[in-house]
Write a structure and sequence with these properties.
The complex is a heterotrimer. Chain B is mostly helical. Chain B has 5 helices and no strands. Chain B has 2 domains: 31 residues, no CATH class; 80 residues, no CATH class. Chain B starts with a helix and ends with a helix. By secondary structure, chain C is of the alpha+beta class. Chain C has a 3-stranded mixed β-sheet. A two-stranded antiparallel sheet of chain C has the order 2-3. In chain C, strands 4-5 form a two-stranded antiparallel ribbon. Chain C contains 9 helices and 9 strands. The chains are: A mainly alpha, B mainly alpha, C alpha+beta. Chains in contact: A-C, B-C. Chains A and C meet through α5, α6 and β2 of A and β2, α5, α6 and β6 of C.
């Protein structure tokens, strides 16, 4: 195996094309933000009943995937899996880019985004949200230091492992915090569960690796560099395990809730009566996001190809969006019981499932966040030496 | 070098002239009614934000509404009427707060939530957040400026 | 001393606030019921705990005087879209699942002793005053709506459009979150909330306002004597708003 050579990618025609498309999506995002700022959130589909909508689905997916994307680097630095070491730099960059994209969507959807400075300087430490602000910004700083350590010469031995371990632990805290945003809400039957934190950790492993596989494949295709099938297949097998882990925590969450009579209404809503939410849960989260990718990876013939891993990654991403949609919006749509033992009705939606119809400013904002993340990654690959020139199997010593 | 320094020195000299003959660049601050603040205008210009924030916290967090300061209290003396006799809101450049804040280019956030005129004035679409200027309006505005004031 | 003009203003403000007017114009009997505390309190006194006792038995299903009064007092009129319009107080119909008994009652911010909205606010804009009134500091509110996710009573509203013609005693603006303030501007001047007054004025007297910490107040005596319940008792929030005759 020759020494890993990291080189910037060249700005060829296809690279420019992708960059321009992503730039257009970002411009559309900014236009939609100006539109919403001027007219107020009344032009979005979010209401006083469903207060967090499609932008938050995108943002939470991106943030969860961001912490998971760092996994590849953690496997290399912390768990000494040598075959992932060439990928560690891209992993760090992708983690920062995805987080930046998710945060951009969150901040731009605020009612008063001009008060970002207030949010960054005034903290109520009883709020997990406030802790998350510190965890997110700290993560960006920490991964930047981690990247610097990886990319600079003459680092003392063990330094990368120490920083990598710190980043790994920080990312676990970050994802726990993100899950707890929902898990610590006592008011709503769909949240209020300690298992949200480990569920989100499992989700981060799964979504992060899926996004990493797709971005890695896309970048190497664009840069016209060899990417060995063995490496991708190996990551695909890991992805199947992570997807199974998500299914496990989902099952535990719902089985536990089914046992409690007080949660029966919400469980029936998600598992059978909820219309779009039921479809997204069974079809999106369980089938497309869990069972199909696992089947693809373990298929006797198809599973031995790199395309199985890529197809499985696409499925995991789609299923992941469905899962976050069900969690964020399904949890809000279900009516709250003001007084146990009584049905509550009013002219203002009490007792009824809240309707939510996302509108285009929300979609553009969410897609803009994705575009920002991808553009930042591509820019980093163009400007920094984060991508190895040769990741073919012969070079990295993979078995076929 | 001297060609750079000379104009600067001249501007500085002009700026340091007595308060009465201000340069034409100084904002045209509308005259207030009522007794002047005892601390003096200079003190108020420098410290009004601190004072407003301090009094705001006393009222909002401690419920002290008997302190002699409220945003609506300012407008008892500091309202401005335009040529037609109507009270101007923060949307107009003639508004008391705008006269200095436009000059200092410091954004005023208060009037997203607070009214900028005394109770009873119908602010309607003249409110700060709703200037709603579209491209055509901007041209009309510039034309009006060219004709000598709005 | 300093700010001579200001002192005159504050007297003017006080007279304008309506509290003094209210106590003069209402009938003596109604005043006795409507008033909870002593006159001339000018601060959030930690010794007080303001609360409401709502008698659902006296509440008329067809009446929404409390809602209209709150709307007029605080200026949160509708923009024609019930899903996004502010709703500081709303009338709900409660039906007992077992017995089928129906009542109607108003629901507003419950001014909890352990408010979930205060816990979750990232900037601390959602806060509880010393006298128990839960408010939003709109200077610090960034409009994240997390408090709306956390409130078990859907008491909070987000302002979805640019606002004009606010009442000077109830500033509110686009992009911030708001809820029932227990008419804190009235209470601080010794008055009672608008909904309490309106309900009394409509002849129902279903809402009683007073100091829960004062054992001699009307509300404390009523609570000690008759059974009452809080919404979502399972959460242990210690609400200042309690309901009787559900």
């Amino acid at each position: 195996m020759e020494r890993t050579l990291y080189r910037e990618i060249k700005a060829t025609g296809p690279v420019w094309q992708v960059a321009i498309w992503l730039g257009l999506f970002m411009a559309a995002m900014l236009a939609s933000v100006v539109y919403v700022e001027h007219h107020g959130h009344a032009v979005t589909g979010m209401t006083n009943h469903v207060v967090w909508g499609l932008p938050h689905v995108f943002a939470i997916f991106l943030i969860v995937a961001a912490s998971g994307a760092l996994n590849v680097a953690s496997m290399a630095s912390v768990f000494d899996k040598v075959q992932y070491k060439p990928l560690a730099r891209l992993s760090g960059v992708l983690a920062m880019a995805l987080l930046a994209g998710g945060l951009a969507v969150l901040v731009l959807d605020l009612g008063r985004p001009d008060r970002l400075l207030v949010a960054m300087t005034t903290y109520n430490f009883s709020s997990i949200f406030a802790w998350n602000v510190l965890l997110y910004t700290g993560f960006l700083g920490l991964v930047a230091v981690y990247l610097f350590a990886q990319m600079s010469r003459g680092m003392p031995p063990g330094a990368i492992k120490s920083i990598g371990t710190l980043a790994f632990l920080w990312r676990l805290a970050l994802t726990t915090g993100t899950g707890s945003i929902f898990g610590w809400l006592v008011a709503r039957p769909g949240y209020d569960a300690a298992i949200m934190a480990p569920l989100f950790i499992a989700m981060s492993f799964s979504f992060g690796l899926a996004v990493f596989i797709l971005v890695l494949s896309a970048l190497y295709q664009l840069a016209d560099r060899p990417l060995g099938a063995g490496l991708v297949i190996r990551m695909g097998r890991l992805l199947a395990i992570f997807a199974a882990l998500v299914l496990y925590f989902t099952a535990v969450q719902h089985l536990t809730n089914l046992y409690a009579a007080e949660h029966a209404g919400f469980e029936a809503f998600i598992l059978s009566d909820g219309g779009i939410y039921t479809t997204l849960f069974w079809g999106g989260q369980v089938l497309i996001g869990g069972l199909i990718p696992i089947a693809m990876i373990y298929h006797p013939t198809f599973g031995k190809t790199a395309n199985a891993a890529r197809a499985a990654s696409v499925c995991v991403v789609l299923g992941g969006f469905a899962q976050v949609y069900v969690i964020v919006i399904g949890g809000q749509a279900y009516p709250m019981e003001l007084l146990p033992g009584y049905t509550v009705t009013s002219g203002l939606g009490d007792g009824a499932v809240a309707a939510y119809r996302p509108r285009w400013p929300e979609l553009l904002l969410g897609l803009g966040g994705v575009a920002l993340a991808l553009l930042a990654t591509g820019l980093a690959a163009k400007v920094l030496r984060i991508l190895p020139t040769n990741l073919s199997d012969a070079n990295t010593g993979q078995e076929g | 070098m001297i060609r750079l320094l000379l104009p600067l020195v001249l501007m500085l000299a002009a700026g340091m002239s007595a308060a009465e003959d201000r340069s034409s660049l100084w904002p045209d601050i509308p005259k207030a009614t009522g007794a002047p603040h005892a601390e003096g205008n200079a003190y108020w210009r420098k410290h009004h934000m601190e004072m407003m924030r301090h009094d705001r916290d006393l009222t909002m967090r401690d419920g002290d509404r008997m302190i002699a300061a409220s945003l609506k209290g300012c407008f008892d003396c500091h309202t401005v009427k335009d040529a037609s006799g109507a009270t101007v809101t923060y949307a107009s450049e003639k508004h008391f707060c705008r006269s200095c804040h436009d000059f200092a280019a410091v954004r005023v956030d208060c009037f997203m939530c607070h009214r900028s005129t005394p109770d009873g004035i119908d602010e309607t679409d003249d409110h700060a957040a709703l200037t709603g200027r579209k491209a055509g309006d901007i041209l009309a505005y510039l034309r009006a400026i060219g004709e000598g004031g709005e | 001393m300093t700010r001579i003009k200001g002192a005159e203003l504050s007297r003017r403000d006080f007279l304008r606030s309506g509290a003094a007017v209210a106590s003069a114009t209402l009938a003596p009997g109604v005043t006795l019921i409507a008033f909870g505390g002593s006159q001339a309190q000018a601060a959030a006194d930690a010794g007080k705990r303001w609360g409401l006792l709502i008698d659902a038995g006296k509440c008329d299903a067809g009446c929404s005087a409390c809602v209209s009064a709150c709307r007029d007092e605080n200026g949160w009129g509708g923009h024609g879209n019930p899903d996004t319009d502010a709703q500081w107080i709303r009338k709900v119909t409660l039906k007992n699942k077992t017995t089928g008994h129906e009542t109607s009652m108003p629901v507003m911010c419950q001014h909890c002793a352990e408010p979930p909205c205060v816990d979750v606010c990232p900037t601390g804009a959602s806060f509880k005053r010393a006298d128990g009134i839960v408010l939003v500091d709109k200077h610090t509110c960034i409009g994240c709506r997390y408090c709306m996710m956390a409130c078990p009573f859907k008491a909070r509203s987000f302002v979805h459009e640019p606002i004009v013609n606010q009442k000077s005693h109830a500033p509110r603006g686009q992009g911030t979150v708001e809820s029932c303030t227990l008419c804190v501007h009235r209470v601080d001047a010794g008055g009672t909330p608008a909904c309490v007054e309106a309900c009394a004025g409509a002849g129902h007297e279903a809402i009683l306002f007073g100091d829960l910490n004062d054992p001699d107040s009307q509300i404390s005596k009523r609570l000690a004597e008759y059974p009452s319940a809080a919404l979502r008792p399972d959460l242990g929030l210690g609400q200042g708003v309690r309901y009787a005759n559900l």
